[in-house]
Amino acid sequence: MKAFLLSLTSLLCMSWALAAAPDEARLQALAAELRCPVCQNQSLADSNAELAADLRQEIRRQLEAGHSDQEVRDYMVSRYGEFVLYEPRLGGHTLLLWIGPFAMLGAAVAVLAWRVRRRASAGTTVEDAAVAPESRP
What we know:
The protein is an all-alpha fold and about 140 residues long. It contains five helices and no strands. Helix 1 (about 1-35) packs across helix 2.
């Protein structure tokens, strides 16, 4: 009888641990996606701040209540703003963040092409430009 109760108890503990594992994995994934409002350069998963621990507990409570990952993210954004997201959503106020680097790269390529064409139309080669003006014939 003791062996039966012991095996039943261990089976229940193992099933509870296996059932909790997906929620723990979801918790860790969400905590890694969200920035700590105190530390600013660390995720909630990496931060040791007291607020980060509280927010991890809040995520755990919401996951246990059956909320989806997106609902948890929306809750955090409603409380702390877009700042808590490591990857800000594409919207009107974040459009410059998403398009800005590509626009700057395009502008740099355009300036470089313009300078190369201008130099080519002037008949100056790279070797001529490297020679000091005094030594030119």
